[in-house]
Automatic annotation (TrEMBL):
Lineage, uppermost ranks: Bacteria, Pseudomonadati, Acidobacteriota, Thermoanaerobaculia, Thermoanaerobaculales
Domain Sigma-54 factor interaction: 146-375
Organism: Candidatus Sulfomarinibacter kjeldsenii
GO biological process, one term: regulation of DNA-templated transcription
Domain Response regulatory per the UniProt entry, residue ranges: 7-121
Protein's recorded name: Sigma-54-dependent Fis family transcriptional regulator
């Protein structure tokens, strides 16, 4: 039972019961202190700050509720269990409102007492674990983990701080691999909804036939194979945040239904006509320009205005080169710790290569490169020998507008896409599935772009 702590205080004015409980609980491994009334109990608690207090409710000089208030004032996390007689159950309930976790009514056996305290301790352990896990989750998704000292990233950090305290819909724009999902999770975990669910939906990976059932859920028997009820992502994210990754990939037929849900804050499961209230904050992301998608008739303008209360634009890595060493060092620490490797840093030549390379896969590609380098590194410093061939060869940076002549925007975008796809295919030795993952797009989208852009592949 020491999972609840080590030191226990018994405050009981009946001598025989006090001695019997103390003996029983010492046999369970507790270090037990005893007091015959509330005044002495308070003095002992001030001296030892016990992990658990077992106190009678009705005692001379200082009663159990007053003792409870003093204990909670000194140590809010201390577990307090009240002992009560049948005639004072109402006051025991009052004590629970003041912070006691449970009460046990006289008469009881020592076996019953041990079981009751064991249950109390188990609940406390679960609560503490939940608090720790929530803290770890918030730390993992804190915007402090989005690394960057560049001015453009400082502006992104400020936007995350500003929107965190609101329920405004946010859309995050950026090339594949720039960290759109990390920004979305940082918005959630820095908001008032942080303790509620964060649910991600990859719109690009959902077959059109499954989008509605995935997002809205379905009732048993709604279609062949629906053997039981299943809630959708909207319900799962209620009171929390729903992240619609690559929202621009949703078909127009579903965009109408999504707009209605966002307007009415209600969904209907497939196979049901009963509306269900949902309260999910919407954060979206798109690698495409949704304004251009609207002009091309592929995205609804009214839906765009609904999801675009605040827009956050993430720059490609080639436009914030001063952040590359910081990111590389952070990824190196992460992967070296994971693999228990003593790797202190990068050679100067590696840093030079990193700063020359155009990083078509952005931060995601840099992260993959560092993970690979840690895997192959045999010394205490990453050298160019551990880099992929396309980076080791010293590919020059060619950000649009820096070394390239001015060209129409459409041509510039297509050129950048060609460069990114070729680099991804080179980095993955031609494996299209891996290249699509590196670029953050579906395999179907990658294949369509290869055909449209007439990129030669082996």
């Amino acid at each position: 039972m020491k999972i609840c702590g080590h030191r226990l205080l018994i405050v009981e004015d009946e001598p025989l019961l006090r001695i019997t409980m103390a003996d029983a609980l010492r046999n369970e491994g507790w270090a037990v202190d005893v007091a015959e009334d509330g005044v002495k109990g308070a003095a002992l608690f001030e001296q030892h700050q016990h992990d658990l207090v077992l106190s009678d409710l009705v005692m001379p000089r200082l009663g159990g509720i007053e003792l409870l208030k003093r204990i909670k004032a000194l140590s809010p996390d201390t577990t307090v269990v009240i002992i009560t007689a049948h005639g004072t159950v109402d006051r025991a309930v009052e004590a629970m409102r003041e912070g006691a976790v449970d009460f046990i009514a006289k008469p009881f056996s020592m076996a019953q007492l041990v079981v009751r305290l064991s249950n109390v301790c188990s609940v406390r352990v679960l609560r503490e674990q939940n608090v720790r896990l929530q803290a770890q989750l918030e730390q993992r998704h804190s915007f402090a983990n989005i690394i960057g000292k560049s001015q453009v990233m400082q502006e992104v950090f400020e936007l995350i701080r500003l929107v965190g305290d609101s329920d405004a819909s946010v859309i995050v724009h950026g090339e594949s691999g720039t960290g759109k999902e990390m920004v979305a999770s940082a918005i959630h975990f820095n908001s008032a909804r942080r303790a509620k669910p964060y649910v991600r939906v990859s719109c690009a990976s959902l077959p059109e036939s499954l989008i509605e059932s995935e997002l809205f859920g379905y009732e048993k028997g709604a279609f062949t194979g629906a053997s039981e009820r299943r809630i959708g992502r909207f319900e799962a994210a209620s009171s929390g945040t729903l992240f619609l990754d690559e929202i621009g990939e949703l078909p127009l037929t579903f965009q109408v239904k999504l707009l209605r849900v966002l307007q009415e804050r209600q969904i209907e499961r497939l196979g049901s006509n009963r509306p269900i209230d949902v309260d999910a904050r919407i954060v979206s992301a798109s690698v495409r320009s949704l304004e251009e998608e609207i002009r091309q008739g592929r995205f609804r303008e009214d839906l765009y205005f609904r999801v675009n209360t605040v827009a956050i634009d993430l720059p490609p890595l080639r436009e914030r080169r001063e952040d590359i060493p910081l990111l590389a060092e952070a990824f190196l620490r992460e992967f070296a710790a994971d693999r228990r490797r003593d790797i202190e840093g990068f050679s100067d030549e590696v840093i030079d290569r990193f700063e020359m390379y155009p990083w078509p896969g952005n931060v995601r590609e840099l992260r993959n490169v560092i993970e690979r380098a840690v895997l192959f590194c045999r010394g205490q410093e990453v050298t160019v020998d551990e880099l992929p061939p396309n980076i080791r060869g010293g590919v020059q940076a060619s950000a649009v507008g820096e070394t390239s002549p001015v060209m129409p925007m459409h041509d510039a975008v297509e050129r950048a896409e060609v460069d990114a796809i070729r680099a991804a295919l080179s980095a993955t030795q031609g494996r299209r599935a891996d290249a699509a993952e590196l670029l953050g797009i579906s395999r179907k989208t990658l294949w369509e772009k290869i055909k449209h852009l007439e990129i030669a592949v082996d």
